[in-house]
Design brief:
homodimer; 219 residues; alpha/beta; Barwin-like endoglucanases; six-stranded mixed beta barrel; 5 helices; globular; EC 2.3.1.222 (chains A, B); PTAC (chains A, B); transferase (chains A, B)
Chain lengths: 219, 219
Amino acid sequence: MNKQDIQDVVYQVIERMQDSNQSSSEVPIGISARHCHLNKECLEELFGKGYELTSKAPLSQPGQFAANETVMIAGPRGSIEKVRILGPLRSVSQVEVSQTDAFQLGLKPPVRQSGHIEGSSPITIIGPKGSVYLDKGLIIAQAHIHMHPDDASYFNVKDKEVVAVGIDNGERKVTFEKTLIRVSEKYRLEMHIDTDEANSGAIKSGQYGHLKKVESTDV
Amino acid sequence: MNKQDIQDVVYQVIERMQDSNQSSSEVPIGISARHCHLNKECLEELFGKGYELTSKAPLSQPGQFAANETVMIAGPRGSIEKVRILGPLRSVSQVEVSQTDAFQLGLKPPVRQSGHIEGSSPITIIGPKGSVYLDKGLIIAQAHIHMHPDDASYFNVKDKEVVAVGIDNGERKVTFEKTLIRVSEKYRLEMHIDTDEANSGAIKSGQYGHLKKVESTDV
């Protein structure tokens, strides 16, 4: 072994030691592409009376799935095809896009947590059997971490708390300082960021971020 | 004035006091859209023998300009039209895109500082009079701050140091932890981020970021 080899090995060992020291704050990352949630009324307008979503693949959150069905969404400047519907159906329809998508549509959606669509952007959804104009429902999702109450107690955080999460892939390192904690018995530990956030840090799904408490916590 | 009004005023006053406290670390942000730098040989291949760039608008860095001329760039999966050429000409051609653009092109450029193109991605550039295949030259630009030596001494940083810059626009707050300092007599203080980084923080050109020293500094 030459000097360079030894240096490389030492470096790798130190890296692993650091990783294991930090493991207590590690959260797996999932990247959310643009998608929509529909209510029964919308689904039937778009796909026909009595239509039911079919599951293409389960999502990491228990009971949630990516449907085979996709729609087109449109705004005043442009449209985006093949936007995946996530199931199951909800009581309120909502479309989540990135800022990059929003430019393409010509719309200015606010950054919101899921379900908080009051005052959000209007959006047109086009399906194979009809189209729907929602006067609100288009948002950019706020970065958030789904977790079970056991995780919340482990990380010492509570529902709706805002934390910082740093993600380092070697080339880029970025910290999302307004990451919302969402706690439910139904959730499995995973941080969700959108494609802009992922690209800003050259982040891939399955990487880990490091959770850090911040001073002013509540939204 | 009711209680809510008074609370709002107090909040605004505190915000401004905090702003003025932090002004010592403030850096203006500029967002770089995809662009290319060409050498004389490339320019002539693309636009014809003896062609010279014409200035559309000066850039914030003294002597630099956005040219009227644009090119198309292409990779194995797709192409992007109207990529702006920045002048003046350089000795080495280089194309800078976002990760979002890289997906569209079907290429995997590394994150690099400008000029460091060894081992970067190949890229095809198409102009009105011809096209060029570069076997390297496509990069994603590392976030960086241009500054004059006077700024460097003011911020207590040196050329090639890596710092963190936090940018808060209210909705999103993101910190770019690997921001490269670049010092030159010719530079004017400005941080450059790409469109993915801007979108991840809902950041607009002209906003300010807060510079923070980090522990391990040199690249």
